[in-house]
Design brief:
Blueprint lengths: L8 H22 L3 H25 L5 H8 L10 H22 L2
Helix pairs in contact: 1-2, 1-4
Length: 105
């Protein structure tokens, strides 16, 4: 990842993770077949795993309840109902916005 002008490496990393969370939410929301949904769930888990390891480096500590909710999804999303999927999308977007905001201060 390139360092851009006056932005710090921390800011670049925060913006990258924020973007990946936003993209993960979009993939979950717009998955239109079982394969796309499974890929979206697994991609979402990968972003959250990365975030769990990087949260202090990006200057945003994810509340434990949000971390648990996002990482406790069954493999491939088996058994998820619409309510839980919508909740995951909302969590992704909420945390994405919070991280992006923390990167600009």
């Amino acid at each position: 990842m390139a360092h851009h002008g006056s932005r710090s490496i921390r800011q670049d990393l925060a913006l990258e993770i924020s973007s990946r969370l936003s993209e993960a939410a979009d993939r979950l929301e717009f998955a239109d077949n079982p394969e796309a949904f499974t890929a979206a769930v697994e991609g979402n888990r990968a972003v959250w795993l990365r975030l769990s390891h990087m949260s202090q480096r990006v200057g945003y500590v994810v509340p434990e309840r949000l971390m648990r909710a996002s990482l406790s999804v069954p493999s491939g999303g088996r058994g998820l109902d619409d309510h839980r999927i919508e909740l995951l999308i909302k969590i992704d977007r909420h945390v994405s916005a919070a991280i992006a905001e923390s990167a600009t201060v």
